[in-house]
Specification:
There is one protein chain. By secondary structure, this protein is α/β, with parallel strands linked by helices. It is built from five helices and four strands, in the order βαβαββααα. The chain has helices at 13-27, 40-51, 77-87, 91-106, 118-136, and strands at 2-5, 33-37, 59-63, 71-75. α3 (77-87) packs across α4 (91-106) and α4 (91-106) crosses α5 (118-136). It starts with a strand and ends with a helix.
């Protein structure tokens, strides 16, 4: 797993790595994942190019299922911080929630195109978050 921080924000990289590795191993297996932290401009361009949605978002997940690279996750700490404020939680909690959310997308869970999976996905997301906070927080 490669984690690249292309922002100036300090991030709990090792905690993120442990969280993502644990969930990916459990849900998918031993696969190569790239996790990239980017700014609002970069994620906004990706969001428009791949989702036809103007403006930045918190996370984008791309699943390739290639042997060399199973998937990529792009996260925007600035948007995550804004969402944390809006949802009334701290930055690290929202960051971990989004990392877990991305891991579930990598595992094939979907809430946008297959709403029947939405409830299961969000229940798993919150259960994993509680587990991470209990063991790692």
């Amino acid at each position: 797993m490669r984690i690249t921080n292309r922002t100036t924000r300090s991030l709990p990289i090792e905690r993120i790595r442990r969280t993502l590795e644990k969930i990916v191993e459990k849900e998918i297996g031993d696969v190569a994942i790239d996790l990239l932290f980017v700014g609002e401009r970069t994620i906004g361009k990706l969001n428009e190019a791949f989702r036809n949605t103007v403006g930045p978002t918190d996370v984008l997940t791309f699943v390739y299922k290639d042997e060399d690279l199973y998937g990529e996750v792009f996260l925007c700490p600035t948007v995550i911080a804004k969402n944390a404020q809006r949802f009334g939680c701290n930055f690290e909690e929202e960051l971990l929630r989004v990392v877990i959310h991305a891991a579930l997308h990598l595992a094939g869970y979907d809430h946008e195109f297959d709403v029947s999976q939405s409830k299961i996905m969000f229940q798993k997301q919150e259960a994993y978050l509680k587990e991470v906070e209990r063991h790692d927080g």
